[in-house]
Design a protein that fits this description.
- 59% of the residues lie in helices and 9% in strands.
- Strand 2 and strand 3 form a beta hairpin.
- Helix 5 runs parallel beside helix 8, helix 15 runs antiparallel to helix 17 and helix 19 runs antiparallel to helix 20.
- It starts with a helix and ends with a helix.
- 49% of the residues are buried.
C-alpha cells in the first residue's frame, strides 16, 4: 500500500491538488448542507431498487386528516380569488384572523410550543389543497412554515429563543418573514452588502453588547405585514469585542419590526399576485447579541444554517403548489375538452388536443409522485439537498408547461378574465415560482449536477476533502484510499454501462414489477451510463467543469429524470399497480427516456476531449439516441384518463379544493358530470341526425325525462363556455358611471379637434 501511495498516488495527488479550484466558505457550507439520499444510489450507476420500494410512503395522521377536512376546507370556502386579486388586493381580515386562530402559521412548530406539530407531508398537503383555491392564500400559509424564523429557531435557536418566539409564531401574534434577497444579491445571495457591526449600545434602557444593522432587502414575502423579521447580513467586529476576527461572515438574527430604524410596509406586485410581498430597510438598527438565532455562538454560521433549512423547505412549498397546479390543470382541462364541442364533436377527440392533454395528465401523475417520495424522505428526517433542488426546478418548470397547455386548450375561456375564469390567475402566477427560492436557470446550470456530483458521488467528496487537507501527509493517505476505490468503481461502472447499453438494458437489474419491469431495466442502464459519463467529464475537465454550465445542465437533466422517473415507478408500486393508470406511467417513461438519450447525445457531441467522447459514445450510446417519446397510442390512452369520471381520474387529481359556490370551477365540474351522464342520450340523437331534443322525444328516439336531462347538460355547458364582460366604468375610472361610452369618445374627439 505504501509503495502504491508513494510511487503512483503521490504524483496524482500533487497534480490534482494543484488543479483543484479554491472553494469559498459559502460554497463549502452549501455543499455540506442537507443530506444525500436516493440521489446517491443513482450516482453509483447500480441503484438498489429494493431500497427504493421499501421506503415507507408518506402518510397522514388522523389529526392531520381532520385538519385537511376541517379548517383547510373551511378556509377554502372563505376564499374568493377574483375578489382577493381584483378588488381587495389582499386577503380579507376575517381570513387573516381564521388563519391565525387555526394555527396555519404554526404547522411545523411542535405542540410543546403551541403549534400543530404536523409532518412535512401534512404541510405539503395543506399547501397543495389551498393553492387550488387561492394562490395568495397558499403563499401566505406556506411561507411561515418554510424557510424563515420558525424553522431556523427550531433547528438552531437557543432554548430561551424557542420558548419566547415559537408560541407567538404558532398562534399568529407574530407574523414572520425572512430577509435574504437584496438589490445587490439575488441568486448570489452570499454577495449581500447588508451589515451588522458589533458594538455597545442602549437596548430597552440598558447598555449591552450587540449589533448595529444596516440593510436593504426586497422581494420579501409577508414583509409588509411582518412583525418579526428574520434577517441575513454580514457581521463584522472591527473593535474585536467578541474575538480576534474582524470579518465574521453571514449571520441570521431576529428583528422585531417595531424597533427604531426599521422601515417596512411598502408592497411589491409580483406578476399581479397580491400575496403580501415587499421591500424593507434598516438604518442603524441596534439589537443585542442574544437576538442572533442560536445566540453569540452562531455568529458567522448563517449561510450554513440557511442552506440546511433550504434543503428541506425547497422540497415542500413550491413543489406542492406546482403539483397542485398540474393536477388542477389536468382536471379542469380534461373536463373542458370533454364538454366543449367544435365542428360538431368534442374537442377531446382531436389529436391536436389529445397531445397536450396527455402531457398535462402525465405531468400531474409524475409531479405528485415526486412530491410524495420527497415528503417520505422528509418525514423520515432526511433533508435531501440535491433532490430538493431538483424538485423546485422541475416542479415549477413542468407546471409552467402544463399550465401553458391548459391555456391553449381552453382558448378564449382562459384568456378572458373575470370571476368565472378558473385558469388565468394560475397562469399569471407561474413566473413567481420559476424565480423564487433560487432562479431555475441557476439551479439547472450550476446547482443540480454541480452539487450532486460532489455530494452524491460515492468518493468525490472524500477526494476533495483529502486534497484540501492542510496536513499534506494525512491528505495523501486519505486521497490514496478514496482514489483507488474510485478507480475500481469506475471500471465496474464501465463494464455495467457497456453491457447494458449494447443489450438495450436486457440484463440490467430490475425488481419483478409486472408490466413496469422493463422500465426499471432502462433506468438501471441509464444510471450506469450517467455514472460513467459523469466520472469521465470530471476526470477530463476537473474544476473547469464548473464553468461548462451547458454540460453541467445536461448532466443535471439526466440526474433529474432518473429521480423523477424513480418516483413515478414508486407511486405505481405504492398504489397497487393500478392498470388504469399505466398509460400515464408509460407516457412519463417514454418522455423521460427521450430526454435522457437526447442529453447524452448532446454531452457526447460537446465534451471537449473528443477522444474520450468517441470512446464514451461506443460504450453508452452505440446506436445513437433512439427513443422518440410517447407513441400515439400512449398519448391517446393517457388523455382518456381525465375525459370521463373514473377512479383513475380521482387518483390523478386528488384532494383539490371543491367548493360548490357557483364559481367557474364548480360550474365546470357540474357540467362535466351531466355531459358524462347524458353521453348515450346524445349519441342516439346524433345517430338519428337530430339536434333538438324535443324532436327526438317526438320521434321516439329518447324519452321526455332523457330529453330534459340532456337539456340541463347543455345549459350547464353553456354556462361554462360563457366568459365575463364588464361595464366600462367597472374597469376604468376614466368613464363616468352615467356617461355612455360612445358619447365619451365622441366628446373626447370633439375636444381634440377643437384644440
Amino acid at each position: 500500500m505504501s509503495f502504491r501511495r508513494d510511487t503512483i498516488t503521490k504524483p496524482i495527488f500533487a497534480l490534482a491538488r494543484g488543479a483543484l479550484p479554491a472553494m469559498s466558505d459559502t460554497e463549502r457550507e452549501a455543499l455540506e448542507a442537507g443530506d444525500v439520499w436516493w440521489d446517491a444510489d443513482l450516482f453509483t450507476g447500480n441503484p438498489d431498487w429494493s431500497k427504493l420500494l421499501a421506503i415507507a410512503p408518506a402518510t397522514l395522521s388522523g389529526e392531520e386528516k381532520a385538519f385537511l377536512n376541517g379548517p383547510v376546507d373551511e378556509l377554502c370556502a372563505m376564499l374568493d380569488e377574483w375578489k382577493i386579486f381584483w378588488e381587495w388586493r389582499d386577503l380579507p381580515q376575517e381570513v387573516w384572523a381564521f388563519i391565525k386562530r387555526e394555527k396555519f402559521f404554526g404547522m411545523i412548530i411542535p405542540k410543546e410550543f403551541g403549534g400543530l406539530g404536523f409532518s412535512p407531508y401534512a404541510h405539503s398537503e395543506v399547501v397543495r389543497k389551498i393553492s387550488t383555491r387561492s394562490i395568495a392564500a397558499a403563499v401566505t400559509v406556506m411561507v411561515p412554515n418554510s424557510l424563515g424564523p420558525g424553522e431556523l429557531l427550531l433547528r438552531f435557536g437557543t432554548k430561551e429563543q424557542q420558548e419566547r418566539w415559537l408560541p407567538r409564531l404558532a398562534d399568529g401574534r407574530d407574523i414572520p418573514c425572512f430577509g435574504l434577497t437584496s438589490p445587490e444579491a439575488g441568486s448570489d445571495a452570499a454577495s449581500m452588502i447588508d451589515t451588522g457591526i458589533i458594538c455597545k449600545g442602549n437596548f430597552e434602557g440598558r447598555e449591552v453588547l450587540g449589533l448595529r444593522l444596516n440593510w436593504h432587502k426586497r422581494y420579501i414575502t409577508l414583509g409588509p405585514v411582518s412583525t418579526l423579521l428574520g434577517l441575513a447580513f454580514k457581521a463584522y467586529d472591527p473593535d474585536h469585542l467578541v474575538g480576534t476576527q474582524e470579518e465574521l461572515g453571514i449571520t441570521v438574527a431576529l428583528i422585531p419590526t417595531n424597533l427604531p430604524g426599521v422601515e417596512i410596509g411598502h408592497r411589491h406586485l409580483p406578476a399581479m399576485q397580491v400575496f403580501q410581498n415587499g421591500p424593507n430597510w434598516g438604518r442603524d438598527v441596534f439589537i443585542p447579541l442574544d437576538y442572533i438565532i442560536g445566540g453569540k455562538e452562531r455568529l458567522g454560521q448563517g449561510w450554513k444554517m440557511l442552506m440546511t433549512a433550504l434543503a428541506a423547505g425547497r422540497g415542500i412549498s413550491l413543489p406542492s403548489l406546482s403539483a397542485a397546479g398540474a393536477a388542477y390543470a389536468a382536471r379542469t382541462t380534461g373536463a373542458y375538452a370533454r364538454i366543449r364541442e367544435q365542428f360538431g364533436i368534442s374537442i377531446s377527440k382531436f389529436e391536436g388536443v389529445e397531445e397536450p392533454l396527455a402531457r398535462i395528465t402525465a405531468t400531474a401523475y409524475q409531479l405528485d409522485a415526486a412530491r410524495r417520495l420527497t415528503c417520505a424522505a422528509l418525514n423520515a428526517g432526511v433533508h435531501p439537498a440535491v433532490i430538493s433542488g431538483i424538485m423546485k426546478l422541475h416542479a415549477t418548470e413542468r407546471m409552467r408547461v402544463a399550465v401553458d397547455d391548459a391555456m391553449d386548450i381552453h382558448g378564449g375561456k382562459a384568456v378572458i378574465d373575470g370571476p368565472q375564469n378558473y385558469m388565468g390567475n394560475l397562469y399569471r402566477a407561474v413566473p413567481v415560482g420559476i424565480t423564487v427560492e433560487g432562479a431555475n436557470i441557476l439551479t439547472r446550470n450550476l446547482i443540480v449536477f454541480g452539487q450532486g456530483a460532489i455530494r452524491a458521488h460515492p468518493y468525490l467528496l472524500e477526494e476533495m476533502n483529502a486534497l484540501a487537507d492542510t496536513d499534506r501527509e494525512r491528505g495523501l493517505i486519505a486521497f490514496d484510499a478514496a482514489f483507488w476505490k474510485h478507480v475500481g468503481h469506475s471500471f465496474k461502472t464501465l463494464g455495467r454501462a457497456f453491457v447494458r447499453s449494447w443489450t438495450f438494458g436486457l440484463f440490467a437489474p430490475a425488481p419483478d414489477a409486472g408490466d413496469a419491469t422493463r422500465f426499471y431495466r432502462q433506468l438501471s442502464r441509464y444510471s450506469a451510463a450517467f455514472a460513467l459519463c459523469a466520472d469521465m467529464a470530471l476526470l477530463t475537465l476537473g474544476g473547469a467543469l464548473k464553468r461548462k454550465e451547458m454540460l453541467s445542465a445536461r448532466f443535471g437533466d439526466i440526474l433529474s429524470e432518473l429521480y423523477l422517473l424513480s418516483a413515478a415507478l414508486k407511486r405505481w408500486h405504492d398504489e397497487g399497480r393500478q392498470k388504469e393508470d399505466f398509460a400515464a406511467l408509460e407516457w412519463c417513461m417514454a418522455n423521460g427516456f427521450k430526454t435522457i438519450e437526447v442529453r447524452f447525445a448532446e454531452i457526447l457531441a460537446n465534451l471537449p476531449n473528443r477522444f474520450v467522447a468517441v470512446i464514451l459514445k461506443l460504450v453508452v450510446q452505440p446506436f445513437g439516441a433512439r427513443v422518440l417519446g410517447p407513441s400515439d397510442r400512449v398519448v391517446h390512452q393517457t388523455a382518456e384518463l381525465v375525459l370521463e369520471p373514473s377512479a383513475a381520474r380521482e387518483r390523478l387529481t386528488p384532494d383539490l379544493a371543491h367548493v360548490d359556490d357557483g364559481g367557474g370551477f364548480a360550474r365546470l365540474e357540474h357540467a362535466f358530470k351531466l355531459v358524462a351522464q347524458t353521453d348515450e342520450i346524445a349519441k342516439r340523437l346524433r345517430a338519428a341526425r337530430i339536434h333538438d331534443w324535443k324532436d327526438g322525444v317526438g320521434r321516439g328516439v329518447i324519452t321526455q325525462a332523457e330529453g330534459e336531462k340532456l337539456a340541463a347538460a347543455r345549459e350547464a355547458v353553456a354556462k361554462v363556455i360563457e366568459v365575463d364582460d364588464f361595464a366600462p366604468d367597472a374597469l376604468s375610472p376614466i368613464y363616468k358611471k352615467s356617461a355612455d361610452v360612445h358619447q365619451f369618445f365622441q366628446e373626447l374627439g370633439e375636444q381634440r379637434a377643437a384644440s
